[in-house]
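Sequence in, structure out.
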Amino acid sequence: MSTQPPADDQTPRSYAEGGHPAQPGYGQQGYEQGYGQPAYGRPAYGQPAYGSPSPGAPVNAIVLTVVSVLAVLSTAFIVGLPSAILGIIGLAQHGNDPRRANRLANIGWIVLVLNVVLGVVLLIAGVAGFLWFVEQADLPSMTPSPALTSTPAAV
């Protein structure tokens, strides 16, 4: 009778008993862990760790939304409203289509810059128009007329 164990026997044996170690050596994968499968508690290669932000976090849309809302609040809904709407839509679309969300955020930045430039141009035109009107208008002076300052005659 042979002292060799059957070939399908996976019981660990020492080298002296003519066996090989059952556990794989350092850096080798065991039979319970297939190629490309993550080990317990570790992510697979190229995958973000559990709880870490996704690589394409919508930072662009978040910053656009915050800046646009501040512009909306500081300019009485004139400048930042369209870009704030685009930023919010970009945040909502990030889970489904990150590429579209990033594109919406970029368009929102362009709209915000155009609105700021347009707002500055309109402000300058308004101030210039007001100053021109004040120069052209025949406004009464602030000094009282002599007829109003005279004292009434005593009766």
